[in-house]
């Protein structure tokens, strides 16, 4: 009985090893390419196109206002946002986690009642994403 | 990579289990916080497990608006493990996933090769293997890890060797090393991510134990050495309180890792203790006789 169990176990291990062997690849994704819509948006800088989006959706009183707001950082100016651009957290929260109602920025009103809008408009999102891909020029 | 699996398979077959009951229980549970421990289940015992990790306790995603993370779930896992023999445990689980790969189904295997006992081996040594498959929908973006050009891109494999010793009556220490193989990685990252880990357990009283762990990636963008500016990967660190109530083990823990499985938190931890991005979590383990 005990010998039978060990044989079954060794067979099971062999089967798992075989499956793992066959299920291995070592591939790498291509680097993210610039979306086609970026070609239709002329180079945007912080002062020319981004400040207004951030002021309306992030840097208002109570949020990333640099004062008593709940959001970290002072998004009323470029220098206040820069640390979050450099460490990738802006990209992470605004672009990568855009569909997450809690972590995605701007937050949904169901999570943060004072949120001015649940999501960026499609145009705002595209402009911000192209600006980030260009290296967020000031 | 294939050679590594072969070597470990040969090693595990060559070191036959001795069949004797180990004299030392190094850890109380089969898992420390997120890391596997050297412990295996007794034969014919089924362990039903519920693992939950809440959202960030502090930082900009925590605090009062989310009731310090309690209103969010970073990851949730439901699964079971079964002891085929006293030294061999198999497991299966469904996890939400916290990294870019979501809706994970996993299978695991643990083989205890040596057991610490008086006059015998000075350490308990266990081989651990885990494979996960993402069952999430496909992305239309070829540069997304969820593009899943082939089925294998849904799979992540992990194998590690664990060595632990009960150093004192109330204190155990475990060292581990292993590799996590991702079949597909974002541009510029490595497929084989090696790591070294340390876990420990201090038995405070008959019921309460304090546990801790750290898993340090050794290569690739995840390694904490000479990180370039803009690299947001962080080392997963966990601390927990373990309550053994007799029939089940209940664990409360704090960790910066958002994912539960090694295939998730080793390659994808980007949350930082110093930014308040740590979370409360719990694990419930209930044993049944089958």
Brief account:
The complex is a heterodimer of chains A (138) and B (290). With 138 residues, chain A is mainly α.
Secondary structure blueprint with pairings:
The complex is a heterodimer of chains A (138) and B (290).
Chain A: H1 2-22, E1 27-28, H2 51-57, H3 78-86, H4 89-96, H5 122-133
Chain B: H1 2-14, E1 45-54, E2 73-85, E3 88-95, E4 104-114, E5 124-134, E6 155-168, E7 171-182, E8 184-185, E9 192-203, E10 208-217, E11 237-244, E12 248-255, H2 262-268, E13 279-289
Antiparallel strand pairs in B: 1-2, 1-13, 2-3, 3-4, 4-5, 5-6, 6-7, 7-9, 9-10, 10-11, 11-12, 12-13
Describe the structure.
The complex is a heterodimer of chains A (138) and B (290). With 138 residues, chain A is an all-alpha fold. Chain A is built from 5 helices and 1 strand, in the order H-E-H-H-H-H. Chain A has helices at residues 2-22, 51-57, 78-86, 89-96, 122-133; one strand at 27-28. The longest helix of chain A is centred in the N-terminal third of the chain and has 21 residues, at 2-22. The termini of chain A are far apart. With 290 residues, chain B is mainly beta. Chain B has a 12-stranded antiparallel β-barrel. Chain B is globular, with a radius of gyration of 19 Å. Chain B starts with a helix and ends with a strand. Residues 1-18 of chain B have low confidence and may be disordered. The A-B interface holds A 5-6, 9-10, 12-14, 16-17, 20-21, 23-33, 70-72, 86-89, 92, 102-103, 111-112 and B 1-2, 5-6, 9, 12-13, 55, 59-61, 63, 65-66, 72, 84-85, 88, 90, 107, 109, 111, 129, 131, 142-145, 147, 149-150, 152-153, 155, 157, 181, 183-189, 191-192, 229-230, 232, 270. Strand 1 of chain A pairs parallel with strand 8 of chain B, so a sheet runs across the interface.
């Amino acid at each position: 009985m005990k010998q039978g169990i060990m044989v079954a176990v060794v067979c099971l291990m062999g089967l798992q090893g075989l499956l793992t062997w066959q299920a291995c690849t070592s591939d790498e994704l291509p680097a993210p390419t610039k979306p086609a819509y970026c070609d239709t948006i002329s180079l945007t800088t912080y002062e020319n196109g981004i400040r207004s989006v951030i002021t309306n959706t992030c840097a208002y009183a109570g949020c990333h206002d640099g004062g008593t707001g709940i959001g970290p950082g002072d998004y009323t100016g470029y220098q206040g946002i820069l640390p979050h651009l450099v460490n990738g957290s802006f990209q992470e929260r605004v672009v990568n986690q855009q569909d997450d109602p809690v972590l995605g920025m701007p937050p949904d009103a169901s999570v943060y009642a004072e949120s001015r809008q649940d999501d960026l408009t499609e145009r705002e999102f595209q402009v911000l994403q192209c600006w980030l891909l260009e290296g967020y020029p000031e | 990579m294939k050679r590594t699996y072969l070597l470990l398979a040969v090693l595990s077959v060559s070191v036959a289990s001795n069949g004797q009951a180990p004299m030392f229980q190094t850890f109380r549970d089969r898992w420390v916080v997120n890391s596997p421990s050297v412990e295996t289940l007794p034969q014919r015992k089924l362990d039903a497990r519920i693992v939950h990790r809440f959202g960030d306790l502090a930082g900009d995603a925590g605090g009062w608006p989310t009731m310090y993370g309690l209103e969010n779930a970073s990851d949730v896992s439901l699964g079971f493990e079964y002891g085929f023999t006293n030294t061999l445990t198999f497991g299966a689980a469904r996890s939400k996933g916290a990294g870019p790969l979501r809706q994970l189904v996993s299978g695991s295997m643990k083989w205890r090769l040596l057991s610490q006992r008086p006059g015998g081996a000075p350490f308990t040594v266990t081989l651990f293997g885990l494979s996960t498959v993402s069952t999430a929908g496909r992305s239309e973006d070829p540069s997304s890890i969820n593009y899943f050009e082939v089925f294998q891109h849904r799979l992540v494999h992990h194998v590690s060797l664990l060595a632990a010793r009960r150093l004192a009556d109330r204190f155990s220490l475990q060292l581990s090393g292993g590799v996590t193989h991702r079949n597909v990685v974002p541009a510029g990252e490595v497929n084989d991510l090696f790591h070294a880990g340390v876990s420990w357990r201090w038995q405070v009283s008959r019921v309460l134990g304090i546990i801790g762990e750290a898993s340090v990636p050794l290569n690739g963008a995840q390694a904490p050495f000479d990180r370039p500016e803009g690299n947001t990967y962080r080392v997963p660190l966990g601390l927990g309180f373990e309550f053994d109530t007799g029939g089940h083990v209940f664990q409360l823990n704090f960790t910066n890792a958002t994912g539960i499985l090694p295939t998730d938190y080793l390659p994808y931890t980007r949350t930082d203790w110093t930014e308040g991005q740590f979370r409360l979590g719990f694990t419930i383990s209930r044993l049944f006789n089958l």
